[in-house]
Records
---
Amino acid sequence: MAFVLAGGRGSRLHELTSSRVKPAVYFGGKSRIIDFALSNALNSGIRKIALATQYKAHSLIRHCQRGWNFFRAERNEFLDILPASQRYNEQTWYRGTVDAVAQNIDIIDSYDVDYIVILAGDHIYKMDYEVMIRQHVETGAEVTVGCLTVDRHEASAFGCMAVDEGDRITSFLEKPADPPGLPGDPDHTLVSMGIYVFSWKYLRERLLADIEDEGSSHDFGNDMIPDIVRTGHAQAHRFGDSCVRAPGAPAYWRDVGTVDAFWRANIDLTTFDPELDLWDTDWPIWTYSELTPPAKFIHDEKDRRGSAVSSMIAGGCIVSGTEIRESLLFTQCHTNSYSSLERVVALPRVYVSRHARLTDVVVNRGVHIPEGLVVGEDPEEDAKWFRVTPGGVTLITQDMLDRRAASL
């Protein structure tokens, strides 16, 4: 079975997670971040899935109920949603990633599974978990850890591991100042993806021990994995061995945990040959699809031409006399005449009034851009009203616009 951890707030996304948990944030024109972990599980042949939620989970739960309701219990398949429910006492929610699993031991017992895959629900990637599970069984490891290979100077932001020639993990360090290099490749480091495979019998014993450990922070990366490395057999699984991609394409994995990273990953999809292939019908990204009409482009006059170049426009959008370039519009967006959008990520149901000019912008769901608004040309002016990131991207929400309107 797959156990997906989807309770993290994602505070570095600022207002994008003010009303929704990070895994419920929109991505790619019609999906949510959570759809990637769930689709990977489904496409890998895993049809027993549990989803642990905590922070502002309504949007996530509603999405899963609408878009992931096709499992059939009579075929012994399901997606169970497990909100934090104070199962120990009235004060204790999920205290960490380990505790989120531990509080549901009785429920997992009822699933009658041999192996469990622990997944983070907030990353963008395509991976065949079956390859990793097979490696876990064949090596006889007590835990197998999904790993990325990154430049050593970038590894300090991750849980890092040293491995021997057979990829057995010899040490696990959480965000070290001096990350270890790889055997024969000192310029690169293996870092954890937050993906773990265990036999359920073994993990169950470790969870019960963690519950009684008052000194534990109840976290896989901080506590359980380093302890298994010291006392048992922990095996590294390299993402490149199970990444789903076109022949010759690079292994694609993104943590869209900042506004800059979120904007960049979405804008990258509009390029000629994006590294993330959303058009692959052999490994589809399943999601909830609204019933919408096709996108429509109207008007063909000078300075009033409905057009989109190097862009992705979702269903239900109306591009009315607007020039759009290198942008991604989610469902039901409506733009009006004499406006222009360049490198814009507009979440669902954004309305852009006439004569607006937006450049390098993320627009939150349901925002009404007023007539004549110009954003992305004067960073100092933008910062008075909106959130301008270190990378020069401007995040616009309706509350920001309302405060601006009240001040003018």
---
Amino acid sequence: MRTRAPGSCWGGVGELNKNRKPNFLVVEKETSVAEIEETFKSFLARSDIGIVLINQFIAEMIRHAIDGHLESIPAVLEIPSKEHPYDASKDSILRRAKGMFCAEDFR
């Protein structure tokens, strides 16, 4: 059992909100791209989710939806998997951040 002090907050994976909606999706071979995208969009609309962690390989399947998310909260962070290494050139947040700076900013 986890406890917390009043007024503090903690994050968790594998939890249900007050409406019994999970804050995760386990993607299996049978999971459709439509279900992944629908779940991703539902996570973006929830006020109890501040960060969405998504495997970069799965993110590629719904890249248009990820690139279309321009809000800072929830933040969408792409992570590697054992089978698929992280590729910084595919990460939409990193691409946007690079667009904010020019080479002279680092001199």
---
Amino acid sequence: MLTRSARTTVAVLLACLALLLAGCGGGSKKSAEPSGATASSAAATPGWAKGRATVRASQLPPEAQQTLKLIDQGGPFPYAKDGTVFGNFEKALPQQKRGYYHEYTVTTPKSRDRGARRLVTGQSGEVYYTGDHYKTFKAVLR
């Protein structure tokens, strides 16, 4: 039978071994993906974004970053249509029940109207960016 101090020593050694093995899980391997707005590691990409082009929030246009801040704060929003239901009629985003998605205008400099850029949010915390008025979307990684 092991003494109390021997059991403690074995427990500490096993914990250190577990940490060492967990840290050796390939974290030092370089990604084969090019760096840029669409590159992200598989582990850092949430399930809802898998298989979709991605962009980090910090790499969005400055106006989109500002809109994202307003969304996080709950407004106020500069356009009356901000926060309204996004119908997903183009079916470019995963199918969900009506009311699941909401859209927000991303101001376009020198545009006389709302422009083509939008952020679309989902009820489960998803955020998508489109710069071409719903033709394509990128999942925004935060």
